[in-house]
Amino acid sequence: PIDLWNLGLIYNVDYKNHKNGKTTVDITMTLTTPGCGMINVIAEDLKNKVTAINEVDQVNVNITFDPPWEPSMMSNKAKKILGLDTNKKQNNWE
After folding, report:
1. What CA–CA distance (Å, rounded) separates 91 from 73?
2. Within 10 Å of residue 27's Cβ, how many Cβ atoms?
3. In which element (H, E) is residue 1 found?
4. Does pLDDT of 93 surpass 90?
5. How far apart are the C-alpha atoms of 42 and 7, rounded to whole Å?
6. Measured between alpha carbons, how far is 60 from 3 in angstroms, rounded to an integer?
7. pTM above the 0.70 mark?
């Protein structure tokens, strides 16, 4: 239920506008683990969604594991959805 941006998996987005009015988008992203079997599916889905924007004619998705992803890279929104909200008061039942 959390998008790649809020998970902190998108490291960088660059774009280049061309004279023909079209745009090339370069996305650098990671996954939560190098062994993720969904790497090609996620990258292709991201590419298809960005290519669906009328002005975009080319999308390059580059996968990196440097720096390695860690939970602290998630947005506060993602942490809250996953129950990792550190601002939430915890009850100590001991």
Report:
1. 25
2. 20
3. none
4. no
5. 13
6. 19
7. yes
Any idea which residue has 């909200």 for tokens? 85
SS3 call for 89: coil
Q: Minimal CA–CA distance to 78: which of 36, 44, 27, 32?
A: 32
- Tens-place pLDDT, residues 7-62: 999 999 999 999 999 999 999 999 999 999 999 999 999 999 999 999 999 999 99
DSSP 15-81: EEE-TTS-EEEEEEE--S-TT-TTHHHHHHHHHHHHHTSTTEEEEEEEE--SSPP-GGGS-HHHHHH
The confidence score (pLDDT) of residue 54 equals 92
